[in-house]
Amino acid sequence: MQHLKNKPIRNIKKELLSDNWYTLNKFTFDYQKSDGSWETQQREAYDRGNGAAILLYNRDKGTVVLTRQFRMPTYVNGNEDGMMIEVCAGLLDGDNPEDCIRKEVEEETGYRIRDVHKVFEVYMSPGSVTEILHLFIGTYEDLMKVGEGGGAESETENIEVLEYPFEEALHMMEKGDINDAKTVILLQYAQLHKLFK
Known about the structure:
CATH class of the largest domain: Alpha Beta
Structural class: alpha+beta
Shape: elongated
Number of domains: 2
CATH architecture of the largest domain: Alpha-Beta Complex
CATH topology of the largest domain: Nucleoside Triphosphate Pyrophosphohydrolase
CATH superfamily of the largest domain: Nucleoside Triphosphate Pyrophosphohydrolase
């Protein structure tokens, strides 16, 4: 929490509201406005840890590997069946981002990948969630498939592994069939950087 000690912030008080699944804290603090005056503000911040996500791509086949799973928060906010098509992702849980994403790829997709390339870090919902997401791209080949994937049973994951032609994935994104932010970002990164030529 060293970032909270920046000059325009003072008198920070933290109150734990929940630590059931992850932690929800309420912060009360003084914030210095641009005119130099101070005002007291309150904000809630949900801390679920940092994470990593990766777009798996095969240039020769012109394909990407994505996952499909149920996401309760989307269901309660209008996603009719709660299912989301996403890139492979997971929480760091103490691992460095590169090790985390290799482990998540094998658990979720069944591929044991070697090389990963970090493209950037993003805050996905900075108004309410503390998470930094480390975004990667990585190549896969059929011979790297060492298991079925599907996620870790201990984490109650029921993940379907999908392989799409890259152009079809872009079309799905444009139609709104793929509307997960990290997935949209990485698909657009692949398009912008011409990963498929």
